[in-house]
From TrEMBL:
The entry's keywords: Carbohydrate metabolism, Xylose metabolism
Limits of the HTH crp-type domain: 19-75
Protein known as: ROK family protein
Family: Belongs to the ROK (NagC/XylR) family.
Secretion signal, residue range per the UniProt entry: none
Function: Transcriptional repressor of xylose-utilizing enzymes.
Amino acid sequence: MVRGTFQLMKSVNKSTVLNKIRQSGPISRAEIAKVTGITPPTVSSIVKELMDEKLVVESILGESQGGRKPTMLLLNRNDHYVIGVDAGSDSIKACVSDLVGTILVRSELPLQAHTTIDSFLAVLIQAIQLVIKEMGVEGSKIFGIGIAMHGVVDVAAGISLYSANSGLRNVHIKEVLENTFDLQVIVENNSRAMALGEYWFGDYGLLKSFAVVNIGRGVGSGIIEEGKLRYGAQEIAGEIGHMTISLDGEKCSCGNQGCFETFVTGDAIVRRAKKQIPDAPDDLTGEKVYAFALKGHTAYQKVLEEIGVLIGIGIVNLIHAVNPEKIVLGGGVMKSHDFLMPSILATIQQRALTEKARKNTLITLSRVGDDATVLGAAALLLTKLF
């Protein structure tokens, strides 16, 4: 066996052991060997390395299976950290997380309307500096910084190519932050980061295929297969907000007409409500539509039910194109889920192609909630570790 092959096997085994401890800890060395198929001596050797690197710690004694009680293993929560950032359209949220997704400190700073690249980067840097200062840890204990950015991202180069919400183009986020903080930086689209956050920290179990749909000011999705984000040949997999739903529909921010996004965002809900409800207030927002619906105003309830049908049509298209085991729905619009979900689920039952697709595609709301994107940004670094 050549040296390179041996080193690769060692790396794969180490990642396997570390991931098993993350998923199943507290767990014994013997149980790791049993479920992974790695020999007990190799497991013990790898665990020693992980403990020397302060990634793993020994915990309470486990139950005896006839001999001495085994020592259990857990991830070390207190010695290594990651920084996650959700660079939104109105504000920048940053956090420091441990290796299991516990947010330890956080910051949020507003973004100016019509922001420039320089001012955007200045706020981004300040938000990160605030959490590092509050956490008070050495840079050597931070694995790196993950950035979730709205719009189209060149992941390899760490450049935000275009964000429709801010209008910014060609923002060299990775280069600027790595020069500022001397830490590894990974930049990802916000919906893909959100999918990663749900997958890692939502406790959904092991799934071969998993999708998250993020519906707010825009619509995006992230697709995960065999534990890894799917990008597609030109790195636009998951851009379901720009599926064409109507050839003569409203013009979208992308320049096309009739995109799914133009039917179901918060702004789309407001437009539909104002069109259908004569006495709708001028300052109507998506949040106010939901509030009126909660108070029993049937006209506003009807608007949300109709939006649910439209979301359901988009989900059916996703099922037919990708066929994931589970689809998680999140984002600001889904806060109105009590009015939206019945219509979404009914539309899927009416329109999905096969009985198996109708019965076996699991549709659920986000478990991680508003922190899914910022934790997904943090998880961008954890995928490199695990």
